[in-house]
Design brief:
mainly alpha; two-stranded antiparallel sheet; 66% helix; elongated
């Protein structure tokens, strides 16, 4: 055995993490737009709240011709966050397989909900407009998808640890 006495560690598959972030971010965005439509009758509320993080509170008020600006700002805010959070989930959970990826990711998603709606709202109070149990569930789904998709796509690679 050539590996006898050598130590190895598993490395994160960043390609899989970025794909997991993009897919789970899209699922989250579509799900939350649908939730806000069912809760308040506006599919744009979620997008306007996200956009307001970049454009200010003026983005909350519908104006003629601002649809693409709001959509662009919402995606500019949401996509990097989704990619970053999925990479963090992958970094923390990449060693333990699909079940831990899904369950651990779901717990991470709930932690993100807590951070978003109990800490970030101190700086962006407009986020309280979308605070709900449904939104907590959406964060749980995001984390579960991110962890699960990462584990499904991950190509396991190990590197030797020098002692």
């Amino acid at each position: 055995m050539a590996t006898l006495g050598k130590r190895f560690k598993q490395v994160v598959d960043w390609r899989a993490a970025l794909i997991a972030g993009a897919v789970s971010g899209l699922v989250f965005l579509l799900f939350t737009v649908w939730l806000t439509y069912n809760d308040v009758g506006s599919a744009w509320l979620m997008l306007r709240v996200l956009a307001s993080a970049l454009l200010g509170e003026d983005a909350l008020v519908p104006a003629a011709g601002d649809t693409m600006r709001v959509l662009g700002a919402a995606l500019t805010v949401h996509l990097p966050l989704s990619l970053g959070f999925a990479c963090l989930i992958a970094f923390v959970l990449h060693r333990w397989g699909i079940i831990v990826g899904i369950v651990g990711g779901a717990l991470f998603g709930l932690a993100l909900y807590g951070i978003n709606f109990y800490a970030v709202t101190a700086f962006l109070p407009q986020f309280t407009l979308i605070k709900s149990g449904s939104m907590a569930f959406a964060h749980l789904i995001f984390g579960a998808f991110a962890g699960g998709i990462y584990e499904l796509l991950e190509v396991e690679e190990f590197v030797e640890v020098s002692e």
